[in-house]
Amino acid sequence: MAEARGTSRWVVLTVLVLLAMYAVVPLWWLLVAATKSRSDLYSTSGLWFADFNLWQNLGALFTYQDGIFTRWLWNTAVYAGLGSSGLTVVALAAGYGLAKYSYRGRGFTMGLIIGSFLIPGSLLIVPTFLLFSRIGLYDTIWAMILPGMFGSFSVYLAKVYAEGAVPSELMDAARIDGAGEYRIFLSIGARLMSTAAATIFLLHFVASWNTFMWPLVFLKGAEKWPVMLGLYSWLQRGTDSQYDLTGLVITASLVSTVPMVLLMISMQRYWRSGLTIGSLK
Asked: What's the Cα-to-Cα distance from 105 to each of 10, 19, 98, 154, 221, rounded to whole Å?
C-alpha cells in the first residue's frame, strides 16, 4: 500500500512538473527573445540569452511610427478597464438581485442566462455590426466598451457567489435598522462580494486585453486599434527598411504582459480576504 501511494505521488508530481513547464517555457522564450538583436534572434538558441539588447529593442519599439505602440497600449487599457469596470458593476447588481430577491419569472430569467452560454460570441458579430452601423457606433471606442459591459457568465458567477457570501439574516437586520435596499447592496452586499468582483473584473480584463476579432471588425483607423490588432498588422508586414518587425512584435508582446501580471499581483489580497471570510463561516 505504501509503495503504491509513493508511486502515485511521483506520477502526480511528474504531471505537475510537465504542466508547469508547458506554461513557463513559452514565457521564458519570450523573455529571452526580447533581449536579442536581429541577428542573434535567428542564429542563437531560442532558450538562452545572447548579447543583451533589450533596451535598444524597447527604444525602437516606442519610437517606431512615431510611438504608435504607446497609443495602442493606452487604447487597450481604456477598452479593457472601462469595459471590465462596467461589467463588474452590472454583474454584481444583477447577480445580487437574482440571488437575494424572489419575484415572478426568476427561474425563467436564470434559464435565459444559462441558455445564453450556448451561443458562441462569433454569432453576435454580424447583428452587432449592423446595429452599431445604424446607430453610429461603428469605428468608435463605444463599439469596444459597451458590449463588454454585459456578460451572462459573469452574472451567473456573481449570483452563485452572492448566495453563499451575503447572509439573508444580515440583510433583514439592516432593514430593521431602517436601511434601504440600495444602501444594503452598496454597504453590505457589494463589500461581501469583493472576491467575486475581483474575479469578474480580472477574467474580463484579460479577455479584453487579448481580444482580436472584435476590433478587427469594428475599428478601421490604426489610431483606435488595441495592442493585439496592431501587433498583428506589424507581423503581417514582417520587415521594414530599418526594423525587423518580428523582433518588435516579440518585444511588444513582452511589454503587453506586464500590466496583466501587475493586475494579478495587486488583486491577490481580494482572493485572500475572500478565503478568510469563507473559513470564518
From this structure: 52, 45, 10, 20, 44
